[in-house]
Amino acid sequence: LIDASIAVTPNFREFRELSDILKDYKGYVIVKGIDEGTNVKDILIKKGTVLKEIVHKKDEKEVRGTGCAFSSSLLCFL
Fold this sequence. Notes:
2 helices; 4-stranded mixed sheet
């Protein structure tokens, strides 16, 4: 069923839990919110290869639901 999708957007915790399933996934994996101290990293993966990494300053606000907003925006774009 996962191969029917173009992209999956797990957060880092979900990505670690699904890593065995996602290693053979042919679509894009977009992992958001990898905590790196004062920074946050997002990565774009295709067929197990990291295509792009983006590191940005961590916002001091504790914001919830941005992953859902990102997934919805991506779906609308597609």
